[in-house]
Amino acid sequence: MKCSLSKNGPRNQNRWWKCATVMGLLLFLVSCGTSGGEGLGYNYKQGVSELQVRFINNAPPDRIYSNSAFKMILELENPTAYDITDGDLKLLGLDDKYFQITPLEHPFRLLPGRSVTNPVGDRVFLEFDGTALQLIESAEEYTANYYLKMKYKSTSEFSDTICINPNLYAVYDAGCTVEPQKSYGGQGGPLTVTSLEEIISPGGTAQLEFRFIIENRGSGKIEFVNLKKARLGSEELFCGFPRETINKQSARFTDEKQQAVLICKSQLRDQSSYTTTLSLDLAYDYEVKQMQTLRMVSSSVIR
Amino acid sequence: MSSDTSEDTKREKTEPKPERRYSSSGMMANMGAGASTAIKDPGLVLFIIGLLTFYFNESIQNPWLSLFLGSIFLLYTALFIFNGRGLVSVIVFLVWYVFLSGSTAYTAVLWAMLASLVIGIVLKGLFTSITKKGTFLEGGSGEAVAIVPIAIFFIDLGAVEYISGLLHIPLTNMPLAITLLTFTPWWALVGLFTTKKENIIISICKLLAVVYILSMFFVGVAPDLYTGYQQALPGPDALLAAKQELQAQAPKRENPFISYMACALKGEITTTNTCFQQRQETSEFEYACKNVEKLQPDTSAFAKCVQKQRERKEQGLLQVSGISDPTIKLPTKAEIIITDYFPKVSYRQAGAAEPTLLSFPADIKITNPRQQQITVEVSCSFNKTTPKDQVKGKVTPSRLTIVGAEEARTILCEPDSPLPLNGTYKVVYEAKLLNLASTSRLSRAFIQRLQNPGAASKDLLATRETLIRDIMLAHFQGQSHLSLGAADLARINFAFGNPLQSPIVESGQDVALSSSIENVGPGMITSIHSYAILGLDEFTLSGGSESCLRGTITDIPPRGAYAKQIIYLPNCFLTSPTFTELVDPDDYVFKEYNAVVTYDYVLKREADIEVKEVLVGGAS
């Protein structure tokens, strides 16, 4: 379409308007495009992040006067790449002689994580009604430390393209090169596959073994990690947590050691090198405690 | 002793001039040099005087004397030991600290010390350069040594004790602080190590001093006192008060060095130090029997007393301590004040037909932030020491009722005797405050009981350990596991747990309950009308009597001359409730309990008076 403005009357003028509209639309589309890396092609499943919990400003206030009511509003934001389900938030360690809070426990069903359609992750607000009672006689203030204890379930996905080369002597093989050990920075949640070891036992029926180190890199603690799925390309892998005795598909993380080793095995049929996708789907339950403080001051004290 | 002095001497030899020439370090240094020449060995003098005053001050136990002597020693050290170097800074610091009562934050004090040094350096530097006796740097550089005597002044005055008091660390947990406080003559040590005299006795003394200090550390256990500690620095009055309080609480024992050497000579030094501990304890009991109970050693009564003291100590192992509640800034306090209107010297007309009316005023000041109705019964007397005599006094008004938050009332004391006063007397005012009440609080955290700890998995134990650590972090940092009470005249201290000092209670567990009433004021508790530990209704008594929870005390032990008045209440065992809400083993319940005591308290105040007889006509 020629956009030059000629003197040929209304037909050409109409064409010029069409051209201007198309250019305008193009400009609009270009300017509305994504900035940085978080566009359509952005990979949310990288790095380490976890549920963010914070009180909104002035709820609760920094100083709560005795014999007064106040609100506590918690903002829960899910910046991870996965949905959080079956969440529960508890307030622990408050003496009801000083502060009465209702409810003390707040469940939340679903908090979707970041995705292409939801690039910042979902957030939810939980509201608690509080009443500050009386200070002991002639006390000027009372400081109460307490814990916000959150429990929830979430998942994690690991995926990487790896090279499989069963023929170790094929030095002139023009295919891919095996990386025997790889490290990872995170998959967008607290549970992270931090390293992968690829062990190939060559032979007629070549054996392939993957050793994953799975760690909790968040500030909370994980009790159980369940393996949902492990695939090499389209093929299912046989996996297990070697330390576990009862259920090899589920690893128990201890307070001292928030990590586990997962071993997956497969048999190779092909003798030439090739690249394929290795993926893991994991589910876990997560618990995190945050210490907070409420400060009650005497309503008779002038500050 | 110093290069200045030797330079002077050299100059005097080489330049035989009639006028004296001063060295470049300034007038102060020359003053010091001159003075130190006058005193041949200032170090030795300080050693001897420091040792003597240490001994006598320990016996007299007068904190203001400590301050006075400390100030003298500080000046003496700057002037004589350091030849006047640092004297300007020391004077600036002393004026600021002692006379202006500079009580401020630690950082501010460090700045003030630095400022004193800078002022000293600048003044001396300027003086030296203006008078052309040397350069500014030459004049000012010597002042930096002032930091040494100032530091010793602080340690000697009771900085360690003040910090320990602020940290609320029980004395039993602070052996090093106590031994350092009670048994180290700091100034004498400065003198010893700066003495010019060199002979075998001095060398042995120096060696002994090193062994002595090392043994103090060896005998005591160094507490981690100063880690991350930030607090207000005390003024001299606060330091002295801390020292006095700590010394009053500290059991009077044999010098640990002597105990240690005695045990070493007997060959009974072992890792458990049983001999050492026994000697220390026995000396404490003997001190109490000799000085407090006034019994003669080597008598059967004395032996009985020592035995009784030992038994009391064994029973007292369950004793609980409490601390002042930092959230209560205004405690109930009372004092009798002798004002400027008090007539220290009075005149009585001799031979008058009617007796001269003499009256002696005093103020009773009561801080009553909880606005309790406090009844005060006041009495007075006139005591004469030589010849011993007591004249009864009559107080107007004899009964006061205080309800305000802060009230001060004047009372008048008159002799209530047909015989006139004549000579010097001590007027003794006594105010009995009736039905004072004081409340204390204690926090405890309840966790689910571990049913079979032996069979518990490693993971479960680790989870529990994490929970306990979290609870301690949030609720029981420092000394907050102890009961907190207003710094009133008296307070009730209480604790329960298994062991008592543990703030974490397993639900359904048997816990010991122990309490005591502590006199924290300057007077005496004369009666306990009632005491009660509140909020323990969910607990069941499993050992001992109900009187551990509430009761009255009629038999009040007297306040010892050197010990705090502590009234021990009956102990018992309770079974803690099984909390149904503790379903999740990771959770806990945090609760606060209260205890209240009502008591009578007596305050005393003495003042010297002199009544002179005046003849009609004017001559006395």
Short summary:
The complex is a heterodimer of chains A (303) and B (620). Chain A is mainly beta.
Task: Fill in the keyword field for this structure.
heterodimer, A: 303 residues, mainly beta, eight-stranded mixed β-sheet, 17 strands, flat, B: 620 residues, alpha+beta, 14-stranded mixed β-sheet, five-stranded antiparallel β-sheet, 19 strands, disordered N terminus
Detailed description of the structure:
Chain A is mainly β and about 300 residues long. Helix content of chain A is about 5%, strand content about 50%. Chain A contains 1 helix and 17 strands. Chain A has one helix at about 10-30, and strands at about 50-55, 65, 70-75, 85-90, 100, 105-110, 125-130, 140-165, 180-185, 190-200, 205-215, 220-230, 235, 240, 250, 260-265, 275-295. In chain A, the strands form 3 sheets. In chain A, strands 2, 4, 6, 8, 12, 13, 15 and 17 form an 8-stranded mixed β-sheet that branches. A 5-stranded antiparallel β-sheet of chain A has the order 9-10-11-16-14, with no helix packed on it. Residues about 30-35 of chain A have low confidence and may be disordered. With about 625 residues, chain B is α+β, with helices and mostly antiparallel strands. Chain B has 17 helices and 19 strands. In chain B, strands 1, 2, 3, 4, 5, 6, 7, 8, 9, 10, 12, 14, 16 and 19 form a 14-stranded mixed β-sheet that branches. In chain B, strands 11, 13, 15, 17 and 18 form a 5-stranded antiparallel β-sheet that branches. In chain B, a hairpin with a 4-residue loop joins strand 5 and strand 6. The two termini of chain B are about 60 Å apart. At the A-B interface, strand 8 and strand 17 of A face strand 9, helix 17 and strand 19 of B.
Layout of SSEs?
The complex is a heterodimer of chains A (303) and B (620).
Chain A: H1 10-31, E1 52-55, E2 64-65, E3 68-77, E4 84-92, E5 99-102, E6 105-111, E7 123-132, E8 141-164, E9 181-183, E10 191-201, E11 207-216, E12 221-232, E13 235-236, E14 238-240, E15 250-252, E16 259-267, E17 274-297
Chain B: H1 3-14, H2 26-38, H3 42-60, H4 63-81, H5 87-99, H6 106-130, H7 136-141, H8 147-157, H9 159-167, H10 175-183, H11 186-194, H12 200-219, H13 236-249, H14 256-265, H15 274-292, H16 300-315, E1 322-324, E2 333-337, E3 345-349, E4 360-367, E5 374-384, E6 389-396, E7 399-402, E8 406-415, E9 423-447, H17 458-475, E10 483-485, E11 490-497, E12 504-506, E13 510-519, E14 524-534, E15 540-543, E16 550-553, E17 566-568, E18 572-575, E19 588-614
Parallel strand pairs in B: 1-10, 3-19, 9-12
Antiparallel strand pairs in B: 2-4, 4-8, 5-6, 5-7, 5-9, 6-8, 9-10, 9-19, 11-13, 13-17, 13-18, 14-16, 14-19, 15-18
Helix pairs in contact in B: 2-4, 3-4, 3-11, 4-5, 4-8, 4-11, 4-13, 5-6, 9-13, 10-12, 14-15, 15-16
